[in-house]
Specification:
Radius of gyration: 24 Å
Keywords: Membrane, Transmembrane, Transmembrane helix
Shape: elongated
Membrane topology: Multi-pass membrane protein
Pfam family, one: Clarin-2
Subcellular location: Membrane
Order of helices and strands: HEHEEEHHHHEHH
Number of domains: 1
Family: Belongs to the clarin family.
Largest sheet: 5 strands, antiparallel
CATH topology: Butyryl-CoA Dehydrogenase, subunit A, domain 3
Helix content: 55-70%
Oligomer: single chain
Number of strands: 5
């Protein structure tokens, strides 16, 4: 492939990696990871609410990784309540999983930025070491893509398996019991999915630029000298 086309491909991949870093950083700061509704089970049972009457006991909840908001509905109108995970909810949520999600988000941002920098370096610079060449590009994208997958797996398990929404809804509730009526992942969660797919797409762009996948070369090609192995 001509050098000019390689530069264009690397520039596109670099821009995509930088966009992933910005998107992940923006996702961390929002409360649009989960949206749902919560049912005031105690209040509904007291009046035996059914049908349209049940809607008076269904509130709303939305939250992200750092903070969120819920609207408490127990038949007397909605009462909004703001909350933050640190330090308010650490005692009732699976803190190790939640902190791991934030940590992997940070790692994703870092390696997406590193990948963007190395893409630009390969496009306009003169790479000479292995980690400055295609092997390094594969490595940074693989790490970033893996972090995105881990974020989605860990956060999904926190929400679905550990019933995070119910734990938040029942936070500091004495006489009322709340149950999750419905919940769905919101925009910020899907941004992480898109970022993971973009990192995978960057891997295909590297291959499209003419560089073999790591460890895919045959043994016959191993006769070159060590200095040549560091070049491409």
């Amino acid at each position: 492939m001509p050098a000019q086309q390689k530069k264009i491909i690397f520039c596109i991949a670099g821009v995509l990696s930088f966009a992933c870093a910005l998107g992940t950083a923006a996702a961390i700061g929002t409360q649009l990871w989960v949206k749902g509704t919560i049912l005031c089970k105690t209040g509904a049972l007291l009046v035996n609410a059914t049908g349209q009457e049940l809607e008076k006991f269904i509130g709303k909840i939305q939250y992200g990784l750092l903070y969120g908001e819920r609207v408490r509905q127990c038949g007397l109108g909605g009462r909004p309540f703001q909350f933050s995970f640190f330090p308010d909810l650490l005692k009732i949520i699976p803190a190790s999983i939640h902190v791991s999600v934030i940590l992997f988000c940070t790692v994703l941002i870092i390696f997406a930025l590193v990948g963007a920098g190395f893409f630009m370096f390969n496009a306009f610079g003169s790479p000479y070491e292995t980690l400055h060449g295609p092997v390094g590009l594969y490595l940074w994208n693989f790490i970033a893509c893996s972090c995105g997958c881990l974020i989605m797996i860990l956060f999904s398990s926190e929400v679905k398996i550990h019933h995070l929404s119910e734990k938040i809804a029942n936070f500091k509730e004495g006489s009322f019991i709340f149950k999750t009526h419905s919940e769905q992942f919101a925009n910020s969660f899907w941004i992480i999915l898109v970022c993971s797919l973009v990192q995978f797409l960057n891997t295909l762009l590297i291959r499209f630029a003419g560089f073999e996948f790591p460890f895919s070369k045959s043994k016959d090609s191993g006769t070159v000298t060590g200095a040549a192995d560091l070049m491409y």
